[in-house]
Write a structure and sequence with these properties.
This is DNA-binding NarL/FixJ family response regulator. The protein contains eleven helices and five strands. By secondary structure, the protein is of the alpha/beta class. Helix 2 packs parallel to helix 3. It is globular, with a radius of gyration of 17 Å.
Amino acid sequence: MTTVLIADDQPLQRFGSRMLLESQDDMTVVGEAANGSEAVRMAAELHPDVVLMDIRMPGLDGIEATRRIAAAGDRTRILIVTTFDLDAYAYAGLRAGASGFLVKDAQPEELLSGIRAVATGDAVVAPSLTRRLLDAYVHHLPTDPSAEDLTQEDSRLASLTDREREILTVIGKGWTNTEIATRLHLAESTVKTHVGRILAKTGSRDRIQAVILAYDAKLVEPS
């Protein structure tokens, strides 16, 4: 059973999401938060598998709430739900620690599959779309003061083998596991093993965070 916390300042949006999620045999809503502060508090109390996080909320917004929940180091994953597709808020949410984002006009089945994917540790955003998002906004956003500095990121990269560093670089370029296996002449199972080790060594929560690390560490330059 996947437990979900809904964070949205619009009661009708929360109601609709709850109705949809609780119609599924494998999901249950454990709480609703009307703002970011409530989301942080309830995530700490309830330890949901997934938080559906709105961005624009009164008081503490969804970006800062995402950052605080991710920093707590709990197993909770965050799925950003935003009004627009490729906007600066979505980028900021991913950088803050979200495992993906969807637009509010997504089809119900897209939301459900997104929640299931995030709950199992996968990223909702396709790698190629993630790169386009980063390319579009990496030069237009202020430096995140809470982000780790380049020295620390270099230290984490130092623990990677040459092959792992190579794979992290192409992950940053948007290559899928299948593309990595084909182009680097590796078995796909080997690629998956390398990716798992990269995430563990760098402390990346998921593939999206690995992509952001590749950008921050200058392994990949915006196109």
